[in-house]
Amino acid sequence: MGIILHELVGTDQGRPFSPHCWKTVMSLAHKGLPFDRNRVSFRDIPKLENGYSSKVPVIRDQDQLVADSFEIALYLEDRHPDRPSLFKGEGGRAMARFVEGYSQMILHPFINVVVLMAVHNLLDAPNQAYFRESREKIFGRKLEDVAAMRDAKREAFTASLEPIRKMLLSQPFIGGEGPLFADYIVFGAFQWVRVLTPYQLFDRGDPVQDWFERCLDLHGGVAREIKAAV
């Protein structure tokens, strides 16, 4: 039996949207490993694998369970050292930790605002109730009030991409000449938006948009197979 990836969807089974699950999709594809995708809702996650994890992604590799996209990438790297590397050594692992911090602390706060209502609207009634209660507790205000701040925050988000733009002047990927797990960390955040809403993250001609398009074409276009939201 091959690897099983448990990933998050709403009512549309063909639109997996979790940024963390997309990191794992790209990691598995990078390694050239076949896998099956088990798509579940928020409320289904605690039932998975006898309650193994409160969050997805989770992979089952025969009798081995691994949760968390970074831990999964490390597991795949160590389990399959003969396949294309996700890190290219300890320096790559350390770099990916920095990129993960940048993505979660700088990029995700704005993207959360962008996708908030799109996620809510994609869920069925029980999952909408769970999502609204849990997110309004985090934000301390109604979802609609949080989402209304989107356009006011966009300029600061655009500025926050400047380190990536500068890097892309000298190389096509965060990983250098080819992608590494560090690329998939940032890619997952932008794919989160792409599959949920037509909101334009990038200004025309932004090199980060060009990089994102290159990532969509990787590994036979596995990420582009999910059509962009309209």
TrEMBL record:
Pfam families from the UniProt entry: GST_C_7 (PF22041), GST_N_2 (PF13409)
Residues annotated as transmembrane: none
Domain GST N-terminal: 8-84
GO cellular component, one term: cytoplasm
PANTHER family: GLUTATHIONE S-TRANSFERASE OMEGA, PTHR43968
Official protein name in the record: Beta-aryl ether-cleaving protein
Annotated organism of origin: Phyllobacterium endophyticum
